[in-house]
Amino acid sequence: MNSQFPITAIDLMGGDDSPLTRWRAINKYIKLNPNHAFKVYLDESCMQQHQQTFAECPDNISLIIAENSILMDESPIRALRQKRTSSMSVAIKAVADGEADAILTAGNSGALVALAKYWLKMSSTIERPALATVLPGSPKPTLLLDIGAMLEYRAEDLYGLAELGAQVAPELLNCGPRPEVALLNVGTEHIKGHDTVQQADRLLQDSELNYLGFCEGTHLFAGFADVVCCDGFVGNITLKACEGLMQQVQSKRHLKWWQKWFCQFNDVNLNPAQYNGALLLGLDGLVVKAHGNSDEQGFYHALVKTGEWMTKIK
After folding, report:
1. Which of 132, 105, 93, 18 is nearest to 289 (CA)?
2. DSSP 12-34
3. 295 exposure class (CB count in 10 Å sphere: 0-12, 13-18, 19+)
4. Exposure b/e, 25-38, CB count within 10 A at least 16 = b
5. 207: number of Cβ within 10 Å
6. CA distances from 15 to 114, 143, 237 (A)
7. Above 60 in pLDDT, residue 11?
8. Which keywords describe this protein according to UniProt (predicted)?
9. What local confidence, expressed as pLDDT, does residue 266 receive?
10. CB 3.0–4.6 Å: which of 149, 160, 203, 272 could bond 131 by disulfide?
């Protein structure tokens, strides 16, 4: 393997689909991006089961056998205590040790957060990493976080989340040094929402951030702000609801009653697979989470996103 190439560590075992789905996506990416290298982590049983497939391995892919793997329904505590030799864990450790530039997995989100925090240093003031994704929009995209790394937030946590989003948005979105920040809420009025978001609103009003106030779900694809913050419970439901809608749009876009609505987004690609891949922010290392149900196309686009972020995030 050419060490001068950017290197991505892949947890091949993580995800709902067969590891071969992700293997095919990696090989497709390699053909189109030969100046990239991969460290692919898998367990012994997978290697033995698909030995003939893995025998045809490109030169810029290294296969590394891990002692075990993490199940999709395994608890983060168990993963942290008993699975530090798993394919996900050693892939993250490769980034921590400087042996890879990024890690990508479609595996267990809770385990990923716990193990990433264990192996990598925190690089911000928030206590736990936050998952973020870039939503397409017109006239501009929006960085949405947290989308599931931490379900419950205090007001101080939301404040730190806003600071984190504002810090990375210029690199991810090319939006300028003072990105616009908003809190996702049930209304735009300052009296709306529960105590936590109202307290966070007051903290942000007194901050030096370019804070716009509250926004609603209808603002997410309208370019209302560069960064929109919420707790992981709200963010995860919001993201999956949006993805479900887009899947329905994609399946029914030929019907006349969809076309009037759909034409408003002619300049935006609405295929959810094109946006597969969420960043785990707040860590001293690039960690990317693909959807657990990623098919070959979805995981390929997560690879594309990872490659783009490797050039943007320093």
Report:
1. 105
2. TT-SSS-HHHHHHHHHHHHHH-T
3. middle
4. bbbebbeeeeebbb
5. 14
6. 17, 24, 19
7. yes
8. Acyltransferase, Cytoplasm, Lipid biosynthesis, Lipid metabolism, Lyase, Phospholipid biosynthesis, Phospholipid metabolism, Transferase
9. 53
10. 149
